[in-house]
Sequence to fold (95 residues):
Amino acid sequence: MERLMHISKFAIRDDIVENVSQRERAAIIRSVLDRLPERNKEVIKRLFGIDADQTKATELAEQMGISRSRVWQLKKVGIKRLRVMLSYEYRDGAL
Fold:
Protein backbone atom coordinates (compact mmCIF):
# COMPACT_ATOMS: atom_id res chain seq x y z
CA MET A 1 0.00 0.00 0.00
CA GLU A 2 2.94 2.33 0.68
CA ARG A 3 3.99 2.23 -2.96
CA LEU A 4 0.47 3.09 -4.07
CA MET A 5 0.53 6.08 -1.75
CA HIS A 6 3.77 7.19 -3.38
CA ILE A 7 2.13 7.16 -6.82
CA SER A 8 -0.82 9.11 -5.44
CA LYS A 9 1.53 12.09 -4.99
CA PHE A 10 1.96 12.14 -8.76
CA ALA A 11 -1.49 11.18 -9.93
CA ILE A 12 -4.10 12.53 -7.56
CA ARG A 13 -4.78 16.18 -6.89
CA ASP A 14 -4.82 16.98 -3.17
CA ASP A 15 -8.25 18.61 -3.32
CA ILE A 16 -9.76 15.43 -4.71
CA VAL A 17 -8.56 13.11 -1.97
CA GLU A 18 -8.11 15.19 1.14
CA ASN A 19 -10.82 13.26 3.01
CA VAL A 20 -9.97 9.79 1.75
CA SER A 21 -8.16 7.14 3.80
CA GLN A 22 -4.99 5.49 2.57
CA ARG A 23 -6.84 2.24 1.99
CA GLU A 24 -9.45 4.01 -0.14
CA ARG A 25 -6.73 5.83 -2.10
CA ALA A 26 -5.00 2.53 -2.80
CA ALA A 27 -8.24 0.98 -4.06
CA ILE A 28 -8.95 3.99 -6.27
CA ILE A 29 -5.45 3.99 -7.78
CA ARG A 30 -5.55 0.23 -8.42
CA SER A 31 -8.90 0.47 -10.15
CA VAL A 32 -7.79 3.30 -12.43
CA LEU A 33 -4.31 1.86 -12.99
CA ASP A 34 -5.86 -1.36 -14.29
CA ARG A 35 -7.57 0.62 -17.07
CA LEU A 36 -4.36 2.11 -18.47
CA PRO A 37 -2.91 0.76 -21.70
CA GLU A 38 -0.76 -2.27 -20.93
CA ARG A 39 2.66 -0.68 -21.52
CA ASN A 40 1.88 2.41 -19.43
CA LYS A 41 0.53 0.20 -16.66
CA GLU A 42 3.56 -2.09 -16.72
CA VAL A 43 6.03 0.82 -16.62
CA ILE A 44 4.26 2.57 -13.75
CA LYS A 45 3.81 -0.59 -11.71
CA ARG A 46 7.43 -1.64 -12.12
CA LEU A 47 8.97 1.81 -11.59
CA PHE A 48 6.94 2.30 -8.41
CA GLY A 49 7.22 -1.34 -7.31
CA ILE A 50 3.49 -2.03 -7.30
CA ASP A 51 2.67 -5.77 -7.25
CA ALA A 52 6.34 -6.51 -8.03
CA ASP A 53 9.84 -5.49 -7.05
CA GLN A 54 10.74 -1.93 -7.93
CA THR A 55 12.78 -1.77 -11.12
CA LYS A 56 15.16 0.96 -12.27
CA ALA A 57 14.37 2.64 -15.59
CA THR A 58 17.59 1.32 -17.16
CA GLU A 59 16.75 -2.27 -16.24
CA LEU A 60 13.15 -1.88 -17.31
CA ALA A 61 14.18 -0.46 -20.68
CA GLU A 62 16.50 -3.38 -21.25
CA GLN A 63 13.86 -5.94 -20.26
CA MET A 64 11.18 -4.33 -22.44
CA GLY A 65 13.52 -3.79 -25.40
CA ILE A 66 13.00 -0.02 -25.46
CA SER A 67 15.11 3.02 -24.66
CA ARG A 68 15.32 4.52 -21.19
CA SER A 69 13.79 7.73 -22.53
CA ARG A 70 10.85 5.71 -23.86
CA VAL A 71 10.34 4.29 -20.37
CA TRP A 72 10.13 7.85 -19.00
CA GLN A 73 7.73 8.85 -21.79
CA LEU A 74 5.46 5.91 -20.98
CA LYS A 75 5.57 6.84 -17.28
CA LYS A 76 4.78 10.49 -18.00
CA VAL A 77 1.87 9.65 -20.30
CA GLY A 78 0.58 7.02 -17.85
CA ILE A 79 0.62 9.45 -14.93
CA LYS A 80 -1.14 12.06 -17.06
CA ARG A 81 -3.82 9.52 -18.01
CA LEU A 82 -4.26 8.56 -14.35
CA ARG A 83 -4.80 12.22 -13.47
CA VAL A 84 -7.34 12.70 -16.23
CA MET A 85 -9.27 9.54 -15.36
CA LEU A 86 -9.30 10.38 -11.65
CA SER A 87 -10.33 13.98 -12.27
CA TYR A 88 -13.12 12.86 -14.58
CA GLU A 89 -14.45 10.15 -12.30
CA TYR A 90 -14.33 12.18 -9.12
CA ARG A 91 -15.05 15.67 -10.45
CA ASP A 92 -18.35 15.96 -8.64
CA GLY A 93 -16.97 15.27 -5.20
CA ALA A 94 -17.63 11.54 -5.14
CA LEU A 95 -14.71 11.17 -2.78
Notes: The longest helix spans residues 68-89. The domain at 2-89 is CATH 1.20.140.160 (Butyryl-CoA Dehydrogenase, subunit A; domain 3). The radius of gyration is 13 Å.
